[in-house]
Amino acid sequence: MRFSSWSNRIAMGVIAPVVACLAAPSFAEDQPPPKDTIFTRKVVMGEIDMNMDEIETMLAPEGKLVLSDAQEHAEAISTLLMAFPHLFPPSTNQWRQGAERDPATDTFANPAIWSNFSDFYRRAGEASKIAWNASRAKKPDEFRTQIKELRARCNACHALNLKTE
């Protein structure tokens, strides 16, 4: 399934306000419930994953790379990765070894994220820049190189920060 620039804009139009509302400081005394924020970051991660799947399908040996379509997906990934670390307020550090978890609203994030948040933030920013560079690639080989690096960065971050129990 390919998404046009129009559908990417619609998706961003839906996701961006949710992210902005959750990431922005609240003027009220209450913050969003942690489980709502965790759910939202899972939605954002799902959107990143969907866009990566579209790109990687195009780059597969049997795939057909349409550079302009792939670049739109990379740009969406870049935007989402810029917002992603803001969906990890301290209140969402809720990992407990052996606890029963709801896959939709409970975290699988390693508590180490919050003890070294600057590293997590840096990693997300670097990955966002790689995705942005891919979105501006002039040649298919340049795009492939950037996406290969982006995949490596995603896998390294998941290996470090995702609990699988």
Nutshell version of this structure?
Helix content is 65%, strand content 0%. It has 165 residues and is mainly alpha-helical.
Please, could you describe this protein's structure?
This protein has 165 residues and is an all-alpha fold. It is 65% helix and 0% strand. It has six helices and no strands. The chain has helices spanning 5-23, 34-59, 67-83, 112-115, 117-135, 140-161. Helix 1 packs antiparallel against helix 2 (34-59), helix 3 (67-83) packs antiparallel against helix 5 and helix 5 packs antiparallel against helix 6. The longest helix is centred in the first third of the chain and has 26 residues, at 34-59.
Poorly predicted regions are none
Largest beta-sheet details:
none
Fraction of residues in H or I helices: 55-70%
The mean pLDDT is: 89
Helical stretch tally: 6
What sort of overall outline do the alpha carbons produce when their principal axes are compared?
globular
Radius of gyration: 16 Å
Order of helices and strands: HHHHHH
Q: What's the total number of strands?
A: 0
Percentage beta strand = under 5%
Q: Give the termini distance in whole angstroms.
A: 32 Å
Structural class by SSE content: mainly alpha
